[in-house]
Design a protein that fits this description.
Elements: H1 2-14, H2 16-35, H3 51-62, E1 72-78, H4 88-102, E2 107-110, E3 125-132, H5 141-156, E4 160-164, H6 175-193, H7 196-224, H8 228-258, H9 263-290, H10 298-328, H11 336-344, H12 355-365, H13 367-382, E5 390-391, H14 403-415, E6 423-428, H15 435-447, E7 452-455, E8 459-460, E9 466-473, H16 480-491, H17 493-500, E10 503-507, H18 509-543, H19 547-572, E11 588-589, H20 592-620, H21 625-652, H22 660-692, H23 701-706
Parallel strand pairs: 5-11
Antiparallel strand pairs: 1-3, 1-4, 2-3, 6-9, 6-10, 7-9, 8-9
Helix pairs in contact: 1-2, 1-9, 1-10, 2-7, 2-10, 4-5, 6-7, 6-8, 6-21, 7-8, 7-10, 8-9, 8-10, 8-21, 9-10, 9-18, 9-20, 12-21, 13-19, 13-22, 15-17, 18-19, 18-20, 19-20, 19-22, 20-21, 20-22, 21-22
């Protein structure tokens, strides 16, 4: 592996223009292909295997066109204190607003609240539902503007009016956040390298890799039904790992140049050593992302594979484009002192004793206290996970400054907390002698269930063999009592179906969220087993050690549980929520644990591979265990810290977004990287290795013979001819400083 990558690094250096033009051609081809396709799909989220999805599919089949994916919005009218919406003047204002809404572009229908009984019992609140002819993604700004104008006119007449619903969501997220992340990353790189070129090179190559990935995803989005979320995740991860991978290669190139190697030779050595770590770090990320298919959620599988493709592109860019740019500007990536030394022929040994060396020495002198404090600290942060509640936050989690949140609150106050999350009952009376009688019995039984406060009249399909009706719980959609209620209705189903002679299924947004949470929880442990098992084998091959993979996996579990605990502490229990602009706490997004496990596992293994591979390299080349730890930290600690800070910056920037789910994802990922990089990899790893000594690199003889040798530490590169000729058959470069 090291020899092959060494040759690749030298080849890319020599054929720099060919490599650069090749990547530009790939970028242009992907951009052209993307411009010829419809782009991201707006396919609805689906969850095969859950009851709520089966009910939705049955309704789609039996009510063709009636349950299409047309966008909806709700306009809520609240009369002034002490008045009712049924008063003649107030009613006239509402009916005028309904007429204005119905005349808007793309509108299919608007329900008049006085004709659809959408008025609260106390007469204080009414709502009109606007149904569009198009899907959510296709609702235009002009359509949204019509709603806002109607709302403003009704407000001017003295009513409190708010608008909510999926059709009014802006769908804008990430653009400003990603820009902030890139700016912070640039600052971190500039401080780390002390050179504008060295700082700019990882950013430039990472952005090119992200552009190639996004254009490619857009080109195939319609074919594979990829959504915008796939592009968002690919951008987030592609940017983070793209910068990191280039950062490690650039750092190793500077180090090899400081040792006196000529530019082409340094390029080959950088790709042969740091590039090997990049390859296997990338593989761990790809394993974690591709492993999302185990969960059984098509959208999540597609997101994982799209992001995995972006990671592969980032690896290829780091191995080819980065050394090609070294060839164009051999000395530009060096520090000022190193550039001066290159011109004079002196050697500059960078980082002989630095912060990494001092920290490593401290940990090795006090391994037990460092280990105990780190484990206990992470365990304490992870404790709130015991109270984890999963769900899908909706408008109730949005800031109170938004009209959507105020509309949600007004409906809950006027119609009860369960109004915002009704259950939809789909009755299959096909083959039943008296379908209407069967539906009536099921409706009566559901209405009699404790916790149901209202049941709507049933609506039959054209053939009269299937019916839909809504059941409104007494509690809010995110309340645990609502979850128990859904389970009760389903548990009592056999008796109800036996009496009625027809079957029914429970769906609706609330039921869907409950089913998703249950499925994700059931899939989490199998997913962990698959991902950690595959990564264990990979790390076993890389480090030829039993202890290192075990330590890596256990450290990851600690960091991801602590990160999830911090998310629960802030977004569910409310500690520090105000500082992040979170107005309403509630359940944690159902997919959050899977996201954390999948994404953070891959990123955590990045740091493990980069840091420990350098220790392994030193150990293989003759250092004693303690000295190998010090060597690894001397050369890698600063770069790992910079890489972690960049990822934290990229993820933390998403906390600035208004959407609570985006805040949650950004905060969770940033917390996980922070804890994993600075506590697990920087404290627990050296403490454990210091305690076990030589045993850290022990491997049973039989297993040693069975495992393939990949030479990630570059041992084969030390056996090249003494005259310095390259292993690719070309003479070595001229001495350092000749190329400028």
């Amino acid at each position: 592996m090291a020899t092959f990558l060494y040759r690749l690094g030298r080849l890319a250096f020599r054929r720099r223009w060919t490599v650069v033009l090749m990547w530009l051609a790939v970028l242009a081809t992907a951009a052209l292909a993307a411009s010829q396709t419809p782009g991201a799909s707006d396919e609805r989220f689906s969850m095969p295997g859950i009851e709520a999805q089966k009910a939705y599919d049955l309704a789609q089949e039996r009510f063709p066109g009636a349950t299409a994916d047309g966008a909806t919005a709700q306009v809520v009218f609240v009369a002034p204190d002490g008045q009712k919406v049924t008063a003649s003047d107030t009613r006239a204002v509402i009916e005028r607003a309904v007429t204005e809404l119905a005349d808007g572009p793309q509108v299919d229908s608007v329900d008049d609240p006085f004709q659809t009984d959408a008025v609260s019992k106390n007469g204080s609140t009414a709502y009109a539902t606007v149904t569009y002819k198009v899907k959510v993604a296709d609702v235009t700004d002009a359509s949204k503007a019509t709603v806002r104008k109607a709302v403003d006119r009704a407000r001017d007449a003295g009513l409190t009016v708010e608008a909510g619903g999926e059709a009014l969501d802006s769908g804008e997220a990430g653009g400003l956040a990603e820009g902030i992340g890139v700016l912070v990353a640039a600052l971190v790189l500039l401080i780390t390298f002390g050179s504008l070129v060295a700082a700019g090179l990882p950013l430039l190559t990472a952005l090119l890799g992200v552009a190639v990935s996004l254009f490619t995803i857009t080109a195939v989005a319609d074919l594979f039904a990829l959504s915008d979320t796939a592009s968002t995740l690919a951008t987030m991860l592609g940017l983070a790992v793209g910068i990191d991978y280039a950062l490690f290669v650039v750092s190793r190139y500077r180090e090899e140049r400081a040792k006196g190697h000529a530019p082409q030779e340094a390029s080959g050595l950088a790709v042969g050593t740091a590039g090997s770590a990049v390859v296997f770090a990338g593989l761990t990320v790809v394993i974690a992302l591709a492993g999302l298919s185990v969960v059984g959620i098509p959208m999540l599988t597609k997101m994982g594979l799209a992001a995995a493709g972006a990671v592969v592109v980032s690896v290829l860019v780091a191995l080819t484009l980065v050394p090609a740019l070294f060839g164009m500007w051999p000395n530009a990536a060096l520090s000022r002192a190193s550039r001066k030394a290159a011109r004079t022929g002196r050697l500059v040994e960078e980082g002989a004793r630095n912060g990494g060396t001092r920290w490593s020495g401290f940990v090795q002198r006090h391994p037990v206290p460092v280990l105990v404090l780190s484990v206990v600290g992470l365990g304490a942060i992870a404790l709130p996970v015991a109270n984890l509640q999963l769900g899908m936050p909706g408008d109730e989690a949005k800031p109170t400054s938004t009209s959507e949140r105020r509309a949600y609150d007004a409906l809950a106050e006027g119609f009860g907390p369960g109004f915002n999350g009704p259950l939809t009952i789909v009755v299959d009376a096909k083959g039943t002698a008296d379908p209407k009688g069967a539906v009536r019995k099921i409706s009566e039984n559901v209405a009699a269930t404790e916790g149901i406060v209202a049941v709507s009249p049933a609506r039959f399909n054209g053939t009269g063999d299937t019916a839909l009706f809504r059941a409104v719980p007494s509690t809010s959609p995110t309340d645990n009592k609502t979850k128990d209620l859904v389970k009760t209705v389903r548990a009592e189903r056999p008796g109800t179906e036996s009496t009625a002679g027809a079957t029914f299924l429970v769906t609706g947004t609330t039921a869907v969220n409950i089913d998703i949470a249950d499925k994700v929880q059931a899939a989490l442990f199998p997913y962990l087993a698959v991902v950690i098992g595959l990564a264990f084998v990979l790390l076993l091959v890389i480090f030829r050690s039993v202890l290192v993979p075990v330590k890596a996996a256990l450290g990851f579990l600690l960091s991801v549980l602590a990160a999830l605990g911090s998310v629960v502490l802030v977004f569910q229990e409310g500690y520090g929520a105000g500082l992040l602009g979170v107005d309403q706490t509630g359940p944690i997004m159902s997919l959050m644990p899977i996201f954390l496990v999948g994404i953070v596992f891959g990123l955590a293994m990045d740091y493990e591979v980069f840091l420990v591979s350098r220790m392994r390299e030193a150990y293989v080349h003759g250092d004693r265990p303690a000295q190998a730890i010090t060597t690894g930290f001397r050369h890698s600690a600063r770069v790992v810290v910079a890489a972690a800070l960049i990822m934290i910056a990229v993820f933390s920037s998403f906390i600035t977004e208004a959407d609570s789910m985006i805040k949650m994802i950004g905060f969770g990922l940033a917390s996980a990287v922070l804890l994993d990089a600075f506590v697990v990899r920087m404290a627990i790893v050296p403490a454990v290795l210091a305690l076990v000594g030589d045993k850290a690199w022990w491997l049973p003889g039989r297993l040693d013979r069975l495992l393939p040798r990949v030479d990630i530490e570059g041992e084969s590169l030390t056996r090249r001819p003494a005259d310095g000729s390259g292993t690719d058959g070309h003479a070595a470069d001229s001495p350092a400083g000749v190329h400028v």
